[in-house]
Amino acid sequence: MANAFFRASLAPNTSLPAVLHLKSGQSFVGKSFGAPRSIYGETVFSTSITSYTESMTDPSYRGQILVFTTPMIGNYGVPSNNAPTDSWDVGVVLESKPIQCAAVVVADVAWKYSHYQAVESLAAWCARHNVPGLTAVDTRAITTLLRDQGTTLGRLAIGSDASLSPPKAEEYWDPSLENLVDQVSTKEPYELNPAGDVKIAVLDFGAKANILRSLVRRGAAVTVMPWNYDFNAVRDRYDGLFLSNGPGDPQQCWDAAHKLRRTLVEWTKPIFGICMGHQIIGMAAGLEAYRMTFGNRGHNQPVLALASSGSIKAGRVYVTSQNHQYALKLQDPFPEGWEPFFINANDSSVEGIKSTSGSGKRVWGVQFHPESAGGPLDTIEMFTDFLAECRAEKLKVPFKTQDPMCAAYADPALRKASQTHTHAKQQPIAAAA
């Protein structure tokens, strides 16, 4: 165990000069770590205190220069990112195989790390994935700028590029103009836990692994499909539909929204969406998505429940994990058959919508991440609620069924026993692409 502590990375004095240029005119000079290459991206900040590895592998950060407000990043290193693909896991430990953000900016990178599961340093991990980093800068000042003026396009210049003049305004690359979802979504459908008792289709807009893990560990057989897959052609094979998180502008995904609009009209089985998936549901229902000033990114966002559903109780404030730049507009009246579900307690933005009890539908969308990773687990039971509805639909019995399978997933103790039993019985399947 002794060699697991205080293992060194590349020495700080090997760093190259580096500078972060913002399109708004400010520049921040520091030192580089990770890959010695210059990049463009959208500069955003996250208030997350822990779980930098999960944040950096979240596909929703695609194309972004991620500024951490926490002063020291990298102190517990990076774990091996390999896991089994079976009824308990989905092939990775983190949120995806590669680092997804374009670059990272930290005040003080940890050149030494200490954790029993760590296999490499943050700097070595970034270098291996060809991702540059910037340290020895005042991230408080950068965060203040981004909070006041909004998310800003940036250029991280490293080595000889650091001495060059800042780019001209027209030279900055705006990732939101590209369909980032298409870049991170699976290209072909694949299955996880095929022996599960309830079949869930997942439209992959850039799904975090813990979303898939949260479904699999609750006994679902999951089929992950490309973001623009024609679900309507195969929907009768499934007991529920899930729409994942993803990066970029939801306006790039109207193809999926138009197909979902037909699903909402013709299908009565349960549908659940998170983050980008929530926005796609809203657009299909007739709501408008807009770009926020600086978005919400962090593990401490309070949301107020406006309605009760399953484990969620109206009037309660839940602390949530979030990562988004866009949101749905709150309008009055709401589209027929829909109602607000959650609202952000800080900025009053829409954090969730749901179908009304009189609509004949069972659809929920939330802007936050119930599966967190990292962050609070206040709303994790929304996955249990969703799958309980799917099982009730499959069995064609009321939600409060006495069926042993549904009961196992309604009671935490029984659910844990059921998951352990299922995990023991099933054999691993081939790792997903």
What's the topology here?
Layout: E1 7-8, E2 17-22, E3 27-34, E4 39-46, H1 52-56, E5 64-68, E6 72-73, E7 78-79, E8 103-105, E9 108-109, E10 112-113, E11 118-120, H2 122-128, E12 132-135, H3 139-149, E13 152-158, H4 180-184, E14 190-192, E15 198-204, H5 209-216, E16 220-226, E17 240-243, H6 254-266, E18 271-274, H7 276-285, E19 289-305, E20 317-328, E21 338-344, E22 350-355, E23 363-366, H8 381-395, H9 404-410, H10 412-425
Parallel strand pairs: 4-5, 5-8, 6-9, 8-12, 15-16, 15-17, 17-18, 18-23
Antiparallel strand pairs: 1-10, 2-3, 2-13, 3-12, 4-13, 7-11, 14-16, 19-20, 19-21, 21-22, 22-23
Helix pairs in contact: 6-7, 8-9, 9-10
In short:
The protein has 433 residues and is of the alpha/beta class.
Question: What percent strand?
Answer: 25-35%
Structural class: alpha/beta
Q: Termini separation (Å)?
A: 34 Å
Give the name of the CATH architecture of the largest domain. 3-Layer(aba) Sandwich
Number of helical elements = 10
Strand order of the largest sheet: 14-16-15-17-18-23-22-21-19-20
Task: Please bin the fraction of helical residues.
Answer: 10-25%
Oligomer: single chain
Summarize the structure in words:
- With 433 residues, the chain is α/β, with parallel strands linked by helices.
- The protein folds into two domains: 7-176, 3-Layer(bba) Sandwich (Glucose Oxidase, domain 1), CATH 3.50.30; 181-418, Class I glutamine amidotransferase (GATase) domain (Rossmann fold, 3-Layer(aba) Sandwich), CATH 3.40.50.880.
- 22% of the residues lie in helices and 29% in strands.
- The chain has helices spanning 52-56, 122-128, 139-149, 180-184, 209-216, 254-266, 276-285, 381-395, 404-410, 412-425; strands spanning 7-8, 17-22, 27-34, 39-46, 64-68, 72-73, 78-79, 103-105, 108-109, 112-113, 118-120, 132-135, 152-158, 190-192, 198-204, 220-226, 240-243, 271-274, 289-305, 317-328, 338-344, 350-355, 363-366.
- It has a ten-stranded mixed β-sheet, sandwiched between helices.
- Helix 9 packs across helix 10 (412-425).
- The longest helix has 15 residues, at 381-395.
- The two termini are 34 Å apart.
- The relative contact order is 0.14.
- It comes from Vararia minispora EC-137.
- This is Carbamoyl phosphate synthase small subunit.
